[in-house]
Amino acid sequence: MTVNALNTAIGRVQSAIQRASAKTGIDFDYLLGQAKVESGFNAGARARTSSASGLYQFIEQSWLAVVKDHGAEHGMGWAANGIQRTSSGRLTVTDPQMRRAILDLRNDPEAASLMAAEHASDNKDALEASLSRAATGTDLYMAHFLGLGGAKQFLKAMQVSPERPAASMFPAAAGANRNVFYNRDGSARSLSDVYQRFGAKLGEGAGAAGSTGNAGNDLPRMQFAAQMLDMEGATVITGANQSASDAMSWATAAMGRAPAGAAGVTQASLLRPSPDNARLAYMMLARMGG
Predict the structure, then answer these.
(1) Residue 48 DSSP class
(2) What domains does the chain contain, in order, with CATH numbers?
(3) How many other C-beta atoms are found inside a 10 Å radius of the C-beta of residue 54?
C-alpha cells in the first residue's frame, strides 16, 4: 500500500470512529481502543477461526442482530428489513446476495463504527442496570468479547472472587483464546488478570464509557496517528530510539492537555522539542493529512 493510500485509509477509519462517537455518545477513546484491539484498524481483517470480520470483528449472528436493531437509524433500513428472526431466535437472510451484502458491511468503516457504537450503547445500559454502577470501557469490551450474559457473569464473579481462574468459568472461550486466559508458562489467569489485561490494551478507552465530548478535537486525531505509527514499528524510527508515544507525550503537553512535566515532558522541552520528537510529530500530522 502506498503512503497516500495508507493515509486515506487511516483518515477514513478515524473519521468514521469520530462520527460514530458523536452520533451515539459512546466515548471516542473506547471505540478507538476497541478497533485497535480487534483488528489493528484494518477494516478488511478476517478471523481464521471464526466468522468474525471487519474493523470490530463482528461474528455473523452478532452483526445481523445489531443491524436488525439499529440499521434503520443510520440509513441501512434495507439491511434491517432483510433480516428475519426464526422461532429459535436465530437471525437469517433468505436472499443469498442480500445476505452477503449485509455481512460485507462489516468491512465498511462507517457502518462498522456505527454498529459497534450502538452495540456498546446497548451493552452499557444493560450492564449498568445489572451492576448498579457506571460501566467502563473495559466492561463494554468484556460484553463484546463474552457476550452480554457472559460479561454479567464475569463482572459479578470478579467482584466476589477476583483471583478465581477465568478459564474455569469460560472453558469454551478459553479454548478458543488461550493467550487471553493463560500465561505463557501455561498457568491460568485470574478474572482480575483477564480484566486488567483488556484494560491495558484499550488504553485510554478503558475508562468511562460515556462520551467525553472530545470526538472532534485535534488530540484524538494525533493519538490515532501515534497508534498507527506504533503499529508500523515507530519504536525504532529514530536514532535515539524514541517512539510515537514520546512524540505524543510532547504533543499532549504542548497542546495544554497535560501539565508541563507530565510523562517526563519539561517546560523547556515544550518550547524546544527534541529533533526526534519533532520528526515523529510531523509524521503523525502527515498521517492525519496535515
Answers:
(1) S
(2) 3-206 (1.10.530.10), 218-287 (no CATH)
(3) 28
